[in-house]
Amino acid sequence: MSDDKHKSAPFPTDGNKLLLVIRHAKSSWEVGTLNDFERPLNERGKKDAPVMAKRLIDRKIMIDAFVSSPAKRAKKTAELFCETYGKSEDSILYVSKLYQAEVDPFYQVVEQLDDFFNTVAIFSHNPGITDFVNTLREDEVISNMPTGSVFAVQIHLKKWADFRKAKKEFLFFDYPKLV
To answer: Could you read off the pLDDT of 106-159 as tens digits, one per residue?
Structure first.
C-alpha cells in the first residue's frame, strides 16, 4: 500500500527552479570553550538531519547542489543530507558569507548559482536565515526557523541571477518536531 506523498511529481515543475533554505540541525553547547563557528551537532541534530533529508526524498525532491556555511554545525548538516541522498560530501560548496549572514548575502549567493542547477539546498544559521525566508513569502511571517527546518520555495525563472525580482511560490515549511 502506498501513500499519496510518494505519487507526487518531482520538483521543480515546468522548468522553474526550487530553493530549499535549511537551518542547521541542533547544535551542542556542551563544550563551553568552543567558539560559535566550531560548535558541532549534538546527538539529536545528528538524528534529525537525515530524517529531514529523507522527508525531501519522500516528496520526490532531488537536490542538484548543496551550498553551506562553513561553520561546523552547518557543514555537518549538509554532509548528513548528502549522505542520505547518496551524494559525495565533496560536492558541497562552502560559502563563507553564509555564516552570520544577514538577508542580502543570501540573495547574493543565490544570484550567483550556476543556472545548470534546478534545485539547490542552502544551509545556514539564525537569525539571518529566518529574516531571509520572510522576504520570500508575503502572506505569513515565520517567527523562527527551528533547527533542522526546511523552507521550500519554487521560483519562476530560468536564470538564478534574476532571483531577487522573480515570482516566488511558497511550497512548504517543515521541521523535525512537525509530525
So the answer is: 999 999 999 999 999 999 999 999 999 999 988 889 999 999 999 999 999 999
In this structure, what C-alpha cell is assigned to residue 167? 515570482
Grid coordinates of 139: 502572506
**Phi, psi torsion values for 169, nearest 5 degrees:** -120, 115
Which grid cell is 38? 566550531
Residue 179 lies in a domain: no
In a domain, 7, yes or no: no
Distance CA 157, CA 166 (A): 6
- For residue 59, what is the domain's CATH number? 3.40.50.1240
- In-domain check, residue 8: no
- Neighbouring CB atoms inside 10 A of 158's CB total 12
Beta bridge partners of 85: none
Amino acid in position 139: D
Q: Write phi, then psi, for 82 (nearest 5 degrees).
A: -60, -45
Task: Decide if 97 is inside a domain.
Answer: yes
What's the pTM? 0.91
What burial letters (b/e) apply to 1-31, b meaning 16+ CB within 10 Å?
eeeeeeeeeebbeeebbbbbbbbbbbbbeee
Residue 120: strand pairing partners: 19, 65
